[in-house]
C-alpha cells in the first residue's frame, strides 16, 4: 500500500527510459542530430520525475525511480552514449542530464558507485578538445562536481583514481576476472586527456606506483563493466602518465586554455574550489600528479615574456587594480591605452589568480604551488631580467617586481618572494660577504645606481617590501646587524646619572598628557626644555641604564635644532609646521605596530652586559647604501632625496628597541668607526654650514625654491645652486619628520 502512490511515477520513469533505449534498437539513421529525436524530452521528463519523487518523500529516503536509475546503471549507459556522441549532440544531452541531476537532487548521490564511476569517466571526456560545441556544458558539469565536493570534502577521495587499494579495501570495487584484464590488455589505449607529452609533467616527476598496484594502463578501467554497454567503448587509460589520477583537475586545467574567456574563468573557479579542499590525499595528488603547478608557472612565464622590452614604469604602477576574473580589457574603448597594456593586464591578472589560489589553498598545496612559482617564475624568468645590464631593461623589470610586491596578498607566496629577493640569511652581515645572495646585492646596489630612475624605482620597491607583514624582511635587511648593539660603546653610569635614572624624573618635569603643546605643537620648531620635558619610563632592574630612551625632549630638540636657523625656511610659509608630521607619524606608527605585533619583539634593548660589543660592527649593505645616499643629500636630485628619506623614515617607524636606538637616539655612545643616522646627518649639516657662506642671498633664494616646490610661486628663471637649496629643504623636513616619529614612539611606549 505504501508504494502504491509512487507506482505511476516509477512506470512513467521506466517508460521514458525504455523509449530512449528503443530508439537505439530501432533506428537505422544514426546521423540525424539528437535534437531531431525525442531523447532530450525523455531525459528532461526523467529528471522531473526524480525531483518530484524526492519532494514527496522523507528527506534522505531513496525512492523507487532513483533505485531504478542506480540499479540499472542508467548513468553508465548514458555515459557510453555520450562518449560515442550517438546520435550527434548526445554528449551535450548527457552532460546536461548529469549536471541537472547532481544540481537538483538534494540527497547525496556521489557516494554511490553507480554514480561516481560514470561521473569519473564523464569527467575524463571534458576538455579533451578545446573549443568543442560542448565546452559550455562540460564546464557546468565540472563546476557542479566541484561544488558538491566543497559541500562534502571527503567525497574527493572517490576522484583520486589510483587509490585502488584503499577503495578495494572498502569493498567498493567489483571483483574482476583475470580474463577481463587480459582482454583489455590487447585493446589499444585511448588517452583521456589532451595534455601533450611534454606537458605530462606528472610522468617524469612522480615516483612510480608501488609494484603491488595494478599496472597503470589497467587502473582506470578495472571498475568498468563492459557487458551492459550498447556501443563499443575503448578503455580510457593514460599510459603516458603513470599517476594520472585526479582527472577532475586535469580536465579543468585543459579548459583553462579555452579560447572562450568565460569558460577559462569558470575552470579557474573550479580549480579554486578544489585546491581549498582540506583532504590531505587530494592535496598531495594535486601537487604531485597533476600539471597544476606547471600550468600556473608556465602561463606566468609566457605572459611575462609577452610584455614589451620596455614599459613606462608609471604605466606599470598606475594600470588599474587587477582582478583575475575580470580580465576583459578592450583596447578600442580605452582612452589611456599604451603599447603593451593588454599584455600587462593579462600578466597582472594571472599573477593575481596565482596569488588568490595560493591564499585559498590547503596548506601543503599552497606551499608546493608557491615554491613552483619561486623556482619556475621568480628565479627562472624574473631574476635574469633584474640582473641584466641594460638600463631600460632593469627599469622595466624592477617596476614589474615593485608592482607584484605591492599586489601579493598570500602569506605563503609572499614568503617565497621575500626569499627570492633577499635570501634566507639571518646571521650578521660582513662587508666581505655582502654579495652572498646575488640578487639582493644587485638590488641594493641599484638603490645607488647611476640612473636616478633606477635608484628611485628600486628604493620604492624596498619601501613597499618593508610594509609587508613578513618578519624576515626587516630582520634580513637591518635587524640582524643590530642584534648585539655593537654600534654602542659601553660606559658605566656615574653616580649622578644613576640617581636621575632611578628617580625616573628630572626636576621640573611636566607630564605630556597635561601639556597643551602635545595636542597642538606650535609651528615655531625649537621648543624650550620646559615644554618638552617629560618623565622617562622607570628603569627595570636588569636594565639600570636608560635603555636607549633618552628623555624625549632632548631627542626631539636634537633633530629640530640640527638644521641651523639660517638654513630653515618652513616657518616663513603657512601650513608647513610640525603638527602634520605628528599626525602622520601617529597613524603610520599604529599601522606598523599592528604588522609587527605577532613577531614578539622585545620591549627594551638587549642588556649591554649580555651583548658581544667586541664584534666588529657593520650596519649592513642596505643601511650602508641609504647612509651613503643620505650623506650626499645636498648634491642629489630632489626626487631621489625624497625617496631616500622616505625609506629611512619608514625604517625608523618600526617598534623595535634596537632600531629606535640606532636610528632615533642622537645620544647613543657610538663605538669608534660607527655611524648612525644622526651622525650622518650631523656631517651633512657641517658641510652645509661651509657651503652657505659661498652663496649670495642664500635665505631669499631658499624661500623662493620652497614656494616654487609648494606651487605658491610660478616657475621662473633658473636659480643657481638649485640642487643644494632643494636638498636643504628636504633635510629640514626630514629632521621634523624624525622628531615627530621619535615623539610618537616615545609617547606610545610610556603610556600603558
From TrEMBL:
Could you name the domain of life of the organism this protein comes from? Eukaryota
Where do the record's region annotations for Disordered lie?
524-549
Which segments constitute the FHF complex subunit HOOK-interacting protein C-terminal domain? 619-711
Q: Where is the composition biased (Basic and acidic residues)?
A: 540-549
One Pfam match, by short name? RAI16-like
**What residue spans carry the Polar residues bias annotation?**
524-538
Q: Which InterPro entries does the annotation name?
A: FHIP, FHIP_C, FHIP_KELAA_motif
The UniProt entry's sequence similarity note says:
Belongs to the FHIP family.
Name this polypeptide is given = FHF complex subunit HOOK-interacting protein C-terminal domain-containing protein
Taxonomic placement? Eukaryota, Metazoa, Chordata, Craniata, Vertebrata
Amino acid at each position: 500500500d505504501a508504494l502504491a502512490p509512487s507506482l505511476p511515477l516509477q512506470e512513467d520513469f521506466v517508460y521514458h527510459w525504455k523509449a530512449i533505449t528503443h530508439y537505439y534498437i530501432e533506428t537505422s539513421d544514426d546521423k540525424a542530430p539528437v535534437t531531431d529525436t525525442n531523447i532530450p524530452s525523455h531525459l528532461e521528463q526523467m529528471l522531473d520525475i526524480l525531483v518530484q519523487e524526492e519532494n514527496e518523500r522523507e528527506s534522505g529516503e531513496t525512492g523507487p525511480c532513483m533505485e531504478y536509475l542506480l540499479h540499472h546503471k542508467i548513468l553508465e549507459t548514458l555515459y557510453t552514449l555520450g562518449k560515442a556522441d550517438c546520435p550527434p549532440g548526445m554528449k551535450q544531452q548527457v552532460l546536461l542530464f548529469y549536471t541537472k541531476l547532481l544540481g537538483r537532487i538534494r540527497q547525496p548521490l556521489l557516494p554511490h558507485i553507480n554514480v561516481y564511476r560514470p561521473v569519473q569517466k564523464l569527467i575524463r571526456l571534458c576538455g579533451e578538445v578545446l573549443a568543442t560545441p560542448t565546452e559550455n556544458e562540460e564546464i557546468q558539469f565540472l563546476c557542479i562536481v566541484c561544488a558538491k565536493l566543497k559541500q562534502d570534502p571527503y567525497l574527493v577521495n572517490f576522484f583520486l583514481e589510483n587509490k585502488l587499494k584503499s577503495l578495494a579495501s572498502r569493498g567498493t570495487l567489483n571483483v574482476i576476472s583475470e580474463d577481463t584484464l587480459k582482454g583489455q590488455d590487447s585493446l589499444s589505449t585511448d588517452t583521456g586527456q589532451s595534455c601533450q607529452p611534454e606537458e605530462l609533467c606528472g610522468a617524469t616527476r612522480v615516483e612510480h606506483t608501488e609494484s603491488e598496484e595494478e599496472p597503470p594502463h589497467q587502473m582506470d578501467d578495472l571498475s568498468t563493466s563492459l557487458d551492459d554497454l550498447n556501443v563499443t567503448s575503448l578503455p580510457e587509460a593514460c599510459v603516458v602518465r603513470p599517476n594520472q589520477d585526479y582527472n577532475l583537475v586535469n580536465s579543468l586545467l585543459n579548459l583553462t586554455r579555452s579560447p572562450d574567456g568565460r569558460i577559462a574563468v569558470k575552470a579557474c573557479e573550479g580549480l579554486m574550489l578544489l585546491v581549498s579542499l582540506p583532504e590531505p590525499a587530494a592535496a598531495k595528488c594535486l601537487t604531485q600528479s597533476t600539471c597544476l603547478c606547471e600550468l600556473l608557472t608556465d602561463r606566468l612565464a609566457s605572459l611575462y615574456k609577452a610584455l614589451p622590452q620596455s614599459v613606462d614604469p608609471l604605466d606599470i604602477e598606475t594600470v588599474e587594480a587587477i582582478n583575475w576574473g575580470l580580465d576583459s580589457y578592450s583596447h578600442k574603448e580605452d582612452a589611456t591605452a599604451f603599447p603593451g597594456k593588454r599584455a600587462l593586464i593579462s600578466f597582472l591578472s594571472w599573477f593575481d589568480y596565482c596569488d588568490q589560489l595560493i591564499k585559498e589553498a590547503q596548506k601543503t598545496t599552497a606551499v608546493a604551488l608557491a615554491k613552483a612559482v619561486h623556482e619556475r617564475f621568480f628565479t627562472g624568468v624574473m631574476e635574469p631580467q633584474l640582473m641584466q645590464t641594460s638600463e631600460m631593461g632593469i627599469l622595466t623589470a624592477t617596476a614589474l617586481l615593485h608592482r607584484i610586491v605591492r599586489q601579493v596578498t598570500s602569506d605563503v607566496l609572499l614568503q617565497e618572494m621575500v626569499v627570492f629577493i633577499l635570501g634566507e640569511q639571518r646571521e650578521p652581515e660582513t662587508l666581505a660577504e655582502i654579495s652572498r645572495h646575488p640578487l639582493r646585492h644587485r638590488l641594493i646596489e641599484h638603490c645607488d645606481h647611476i640612473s636616478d630612475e633606477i635608484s628611485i624605482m628600486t628604493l620604492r620597491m624596498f619601501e613597499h617590501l618593508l610594509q609587508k607583514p613578513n618578519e624576515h624582511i626587516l630582520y634580513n635587511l637591518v635587524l640582524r646587524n643590530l642584534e648585539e648593539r655593537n654600534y654602542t660603546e659601553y660606559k658605566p653610569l656615574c653616580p649622578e646619572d644613576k640617581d636621575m635614572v632611578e628617580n625616573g624624573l628630572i626636576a621640573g618635569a611636566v607630564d605630556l598628557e597635561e601639556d597643551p603643546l602635545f595636542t597642538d605643537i606650535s609651528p615655531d620648531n625649537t621648543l624650550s626644555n620646559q615644554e618638552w620635558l617629560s618623565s622617562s619610563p622607570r628603569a627595570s632592574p636588569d636594565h639600570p641604564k636608560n635603555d636607549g630612551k633618552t628623555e624625549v625632549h632632548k631627542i626631539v630638540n636634537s633633530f629640530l635644532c640640527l638644521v641651523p636657523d639660517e638654513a630653515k625656511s618652513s616657518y616663513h610659509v603657512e601650513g608647513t609646521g610640525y603638527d602634520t608630521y605628528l599626525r602622520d607619524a601617529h597613524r603610520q606608527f599604529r599601522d606598523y605596530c599592528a604588522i609587527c605585533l605577532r613577531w614578539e619583539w622585545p620591549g627594551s634593548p638587549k642588556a649591554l652586559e649580555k651583548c658581544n660589543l667586541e664584534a666588529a660592527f657593520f650596519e649592513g649593505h642596505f643601511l650602508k647604501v641609504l647612509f651613503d645616499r643620505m650623506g650626499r643629500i645636498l648634491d642629489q636630485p630632489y626626487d631621489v632625496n625624497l625617496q631616500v628619506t622616505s625609506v629611512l623614515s619608514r625604517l625608523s617607524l618600526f617598534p623595535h628597541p634596537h632600531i629606535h636606538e640606532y636610528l632615533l637616539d642622537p645620544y647613543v655612545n657610538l663605538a669608534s668607526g660607527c655611524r648612525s643616522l644622526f651622525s650622518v646627518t650631523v656631517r651633512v649639516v657641517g658641510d652645509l654650514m661651509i657651503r652657505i657662506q659661498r652663496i649670495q642671498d642664500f635665505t631669499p633664494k631658499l624661500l623662493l625654491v620652497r614656494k616654487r616646490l609648494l606651487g605658491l610661486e610660478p616657475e621662473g628663471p633658473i636659480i643657481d645652486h638649485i640642487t643644494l637649496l632643494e636638498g636643504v629643504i628636504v633635510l629640514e623636513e626630514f629632521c621634523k619628520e624624525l622628531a615627530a616619529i621619535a615623539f610618537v614612539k616615545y609617547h606610545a611606549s610610556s603610556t600603558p
